Amino acid sequence: MDTSVSAYNENTHVESDQALPITISGLTKRYGSLYALNSVDLEIRSGEFLTLLGPSGSGKTTLLMAIAGFNRPDSGSIRFGDSEMILMPPHQRNVGMVFQSYALFPHMSVAQNIAFPLKLRGVKAAERLSRVNEALETVQLSGLGDRTIDQLSGGQRQRVALARAFVFRPRILLMDEPLSALDKKLRERMQIELKQLHRQLGVTTVYVTHDQREALTMSDRIAVINDGLLMQVDTPEIIYNQPVNAFVADFIGESAMLPLTHTTNGILEFGGQEIVQTPVSGTDRTWSMVIRPERLEIADKQAVPNESLIVFDGVVRESVFQGESAFVLLELSDGTELSLRAGGGTDSRAQRLQPGEQIKISMQRHDVIVIPAGQE
Amino acid sequence: MSWWQSPASDTQVTHGGRLWLYILAIIIMLLLVIPTFIVIPMSFSDSQYLEFPPSTWSMRWYHEYFGSNKWMRATWTSLRIGVLTMLVATPVGTMAAYALYVSGHRAARLIFMYMLTPMIVPVILIAIGVFYFYGRVKLNNSIAGLVLAHTALAIPLVMIIITAALRSYDLNQERVARSLGATRLKAFFVITLPQIKFSVITAALLSFLTSFDEVIVSIFVSGGKTATLTKHMFSALRDYIDPTIAAISTIMVLISTVLLLLVQLAGSRDK
Predict the structure, then answer these.
(1) Residue B147's pLDDT is what?
(2) ipTM of this model?
(3) What confidence tens digit (pLDDT) does each residue in A205-214 have?
């Protein structure tokens, strides 16, 4: 990887006052009969990088704006540390904020933009200058303070917006899809830089995105939100490997959902094959199995299910070479579509498959994810 | 290839093919300015009467105008009312436009349309209504009354100009400013206003012109000491026609042209 990606100069230590935890409880916001937020309880830990992830219209931005103070929830509480914020106007909340559009002030220079929050706080000119320079150095824009905003590239604007948001040492940093205007390469690079910056500043960060990959890359924890409801809050690994419902399973990563049926002896099965013990919580509800494409493998023709392996019979519908991997679309005997992703070099069998070919595929029994069926 | 056959635009239409359009455009432009070009020479006539083209030339009607107490007082009144209208209509219209633009309220559009009514309703109706209303509240023949009436006429213009400016402005800038510690008012004055200032200047100049050029309401509600220049010109036309009117018109054309040029310059500088 390009060395400049390692980004922020570790020596430029920007001290942050103690980071603050955010405690959200019973937060509700309605627009007419529509719930933008439906009794949301969320505990954001001091200093963590938490991502609000959800599709557009899920309520994630509403929640961020409520934390920033730009919309007033109908009920509930938002506390920073021990202080209730719900009625506090935005300018007294002392949070740094980065918008999707950056919202840099075009009538001010880069340095004036960054100095803006300091000026409002009555920081003396000399200290202002040194702190602006320090912030510029942190975002690797040293020497660009005199530029006007329209002389900057997209990535540089992004950095100025960031510098302006942390230069006054807020204890909470809010970001609303800050990378979505950048092209893919730059975005991936900025994701890593942002993560490093967060580590360096140690400030509690709430980040909004609809991009699940971005959320997985950057977050300490992810809060998946849909229809104003919090679906699951956990680390990226657990969100990915143990989604609690069909929405989370479907929204994060690629997945196929196979409906399971109950057997008389308390086991869930698919197509006559025993899959897993019915979870204690639910013999009276239906369950599905989540299958991640990369957890499937092409098996030998003779493969049979055993204690550690589940085996399906399938017909190849399409096989696609995608560079780093091969993607195979299959149809199971009961008509269910399933996809399989095989790492490029390691499994060359995947690349030789022809449509219509009859194959066996297998997955490890311990990779089985069972969730309640349907969207909950 | 001659000019005639050369393409006029990317669409390969030749200048020859566009000839009818050029001629039409020239006719329309002429129709717009011919009245003005007739009045200007008339003002330099030496005749007692309005005459075009003048048989002899002189500056006497300009001397007449600048030497007359009556005309000078009316001019002064019009200038004062124009400036006061500008000072009231610009902030009020700007505030209204801002509020309606920022507000997500369902009624915002309706209120906006309502605020535009002085522009849509025939001015003669407004003039009659204002006249009877002022009769009751004793505002006829007062500067305040004229300024209020002209402000009502100017506010729609201000609102349209300011709303257009706000549309091309990213309001998130104000939000950022507030999150960075600025009060809402401060965010408006430090962040928003500097970026729409040329539109605000345009709106101010046009409000001045709206008042300065206004005839109908002035005829109804101004009189005596508060008679505006336009009202005097109108009565002068009725009572005794002499080229002083043409001289004044020429001066007004000059003022309007200069202000409109300023507006053009200001308008093109907001992004």
Answers:
(1) 95
(2) 0.79
(3) 999 999 999 9
Parallel/antiparallel/unpaired status of strands A172-176 and A95-98: parallel
Phi, psi of B60 (to 5 degrees): -60, -30
Same structural domain, B78 and B53: no
* Residue A256 host element (H or E): strand A256-262
Joined together, the tokens standing for residue A5 give: 């990606």
Q: Mutation test of the interface with chain B: which of A99, A113, A171, choosing the one with the most B Cβ atoms within 10 A?
A: A99
Give the C-alpha separation, B175 to B166, whole Å.
14
Long-range own/partner contacts, residues B242-245 (CB < 8 A, 24 or more apart): B242/B48, B242/B49, B242/B50, B242/B61, B242/B64, B243/B42, B243/B43, B243/B45, B243/B47, B243/B49, B243/B50, B243/B51, B243/B61, B244/B61, B244/B64, B244/B65, B244/B68, B244/B71, B245/B50
- Span B55-82, average pLDDT: 90
Instruction: Assign A267 a pLDDT band (cuts: 50, 70, 90).
Output: confident
Average pLDDT rounded to a whole number, residues A285-294? 86
Q: Which domain holds residue B30?
A: 7-60
What count of CB pairs under 8 Å joins A to B? Answer: 62
* B231 and B247 belong to one structural domain: yes
Contact A148, A71 (CB under 8 A): no
Nearest-Cα distance to chain A for B103, in Å, is: 12
% of chain A with per-residue pLDDT over 90: 49
Count of structural domains within chain B? 2
Closest CB to B172: pick one of A69, A103, A116.
Answer: A103
Q: CA torsion sign, B210 to B215 to B219 to B222? A: positive
Q: Identify the top-confidence range among A350-359, B129-138, B234-243.
A: B129-138
Segment B106-129, tens digit of pLDDT: 899 999 999 999 999 999 999 999
Pick from B60, B78, B96: which residue ends a domain? B60
Q: Is residue B2, in this structure, part of any structural domain at all?
A: no
With an 8 Å Cβ cutoff, are A99 and B172 in contact?
A: yes
The CATH number linked to B147 is: 1.10.3720.10
Extract the tokens encoding A63: 């929640």
Please compute, for residue A267, the number of CA atoms within 13 A of its CA located in the half-sphere on the CB side.
9
